[in-house]
Specification:
The protein is of the alpha/beta class. The chain is built from 14 helices and 17 strands. Strands 1, 2, 3, 4, 5, 14, 15, 16 and 17 form a 9-stranded mixed beta sheet that branches. It has a 4-stranded parallel beta sheet with strand order 6-7-8-9.
Length: 451
């Protein structure tokens, strides 16, 4: 039977090594996962079912990764700012008339979002918070939202006002644009794409988000931004609906405010280390009793697969503690993260930071079936002597064999389903060439954005 079109919407993943990320369900060396329609129905050994099955022998079955911070519209600019310092990135991307982002048409936004979403699915990420900063006109926001729906990725479209833009487009329509989207495309929460608010630490933005009952995703990159945050906290505007991105250089008082109000934290370890912001906020978050989640940030700067991200975070957390233990203080061995901690942050903690943990993030009966099957039989993973170690430290995107989102197979036998990849990359190449040419910035194919 063709498992890509299961009868009665049922499917069983048979005989996999199952890491549920739900303590109430547990883990299994060999077990099955039963899916009915969009949801997980049962997890356990030798489940009785006549439903079509997918053999997962030699594979690791995990919840899909949850990326709590991304800017997918930038996909056509992949690797453009890989050499950038903060000043290169922010100046070239958004300051001045020839700023590269200002060259985006609605069509460029569509292909960036669509291709970015497909890349996430291909790499085993099933949910993304897309902090969208290309909201120049309602046509731009519509294109972004349309592409997310078309992709099949579960996502939070976090509308980010461009109110700090020195020359807003004449058709810039915030805040009406956000209210319009809320009333039209996002009148229901029961859909793959839901709405959030991105953008600056700003009282009126945050108040509007609360009026519209939206989660808020905010970049907090330095101590001064943290102090601004504390001011909003003192007005009662900070709460469990907030997710704070990067959290680099924060004062202890800011961390205490975040912890005390139930705020979530999104760490992009790779980009924080390479671009601008100093040491990622992962260890300070843990020191203040907050479990961080992982984001990738933009693909113009660094990789957006979660294997890269998990390894960057794992190495970082351990090296910071090793440094402390070698020079200054005694560090309890229990404070060193394990690969299980890292996988938890990449899945259920990500779901909490996306404010979607009631739906996804673990293989729990009743939750949406967002599931990834990792092939442990490849040369980079076999033999699997320790499952979380294999998933976090050994594997990469080549091991992502099967992906389900909301019970629907979107990648099977190592291939995305119903996607013409060469046609999509061609659209991206055309988009990239047009954006860069219109900006007047030189091509950097053999050069660097810093020259
Ligand atoms: Zn960002």
């Amino acid at each position: 039977m063709d498992v890509t079109h299961p009868a009665q919407g049922e499917l069983v993943l048979r005989n996999g090594m199952v890491l549920s990320m739900d303590p109430a369900v547990g883990d299994f060396e060999v077990a099955d996962v039963l899916i009915k329609a969009s949801r997980i129905r049962a997890v356990g050994p030798r489940l009785e079912s006549d439903a079509p099955s997918l053999d997962c022998t030699g594979r690791i079955v995990i919840p899909g990764f949850v990326n709590s911070h991304h800017h997918m519209f930038q996909t056509a600019l992949r690797s453009y700012w890989a050499d950038a310092l903060a000043t290169d990135y922010f100046t070239q991307s958004r300051r001045g008339e020839n700023a590269i982002f200002h060259q985006y048409s609605a069509r460029d936004v569509y292909w960036g979002q669509y291709a970015g979403a497909l890349e996430q699915i291909d790499a085993g990420t099933t949910t993304v918070v897309d902090t969208s900063q290309c909201t120049y006109t309602p046509e731009h926001t519509d294109a972004a939202v349309e592409a997310l729906f078309d992709s099949g990725l579960r996502s939070v479209y976090a509308y980010s006002p461009t109110s700090t833009d020195p020359a807003p487009h004449p058709s810039y329509a915030y805040p009406d644009d956000l209210s319009r989207l809320r009333a039209t495309r996002f009148s229901s929460e029961d859909q793959l794409v839901t709405l959030g608010m991105g953008g600056p630490i700003d009282r009126s933005n945050w108040q509007l988000a609360r009026e519209l009952a939206l989660p808020i995703f905010t970049h907090v990159n330095n101590e001064a931004a943290g102090l601004q945050l504390e001011r909003l906290g003192s007005l009662g505007l900070a709460g469990a609906w907030n997710t704070y991105i990067h959290c680099t250089g924060l004062a202890s008082s800011t961390w205490q405010m975040i912890a005390g109000t139930g705020g979530k934290v999104s760490v992009s370890s790779m980009v924080e280390q390479t671009l601008c912001t100093g040491l990622p906020g992962m260890q300070p978050a843990l020191d203040h009793g907050i479990q961080p989640s992982f984001g990738t940030d933009a693909v113009s700067l660094g990789p957006t697969d979660f294997f890269s991200q998990m390894r960057a975070a794992y190495g970082l957390q351990r090296s910071r503690l090793y440094e402390r233990s070698l020079t200054r203080e005694e560090v309890e061995p229990s404070r060193f993260a394990t690969t299980r901690d890292i996988l938890r942050m990449a899945t259920i903690e990500g779901a909490r930071a996306a404010h979607l943990d009631a739906k996804v993030g673990s293989l729990s009966p009743g939750k949406e079936a967002d599931i990834v099957v990792l092939d442990g039989r490849k040369l980079n993973a076999a033999p699997v002597n320790q499952a979380t170690g294999a998933a976090v430290m050994m594997m990469d995107t080549r091991n992502v064999e099967t992906v389900l989102i909301g019970g629907r197979l979107v990648k099977h036998a190592g291939r995305l389903l119903n996607v013409d990849v060469p046609a999509v990359t061609k659209k991206l190449e055309e988009s990239a060439a047009g954006i860069v040419a219109r900006s007047g910035y030189p091509s950097v194919v053999l050069g660097s954005c810093r020259t």
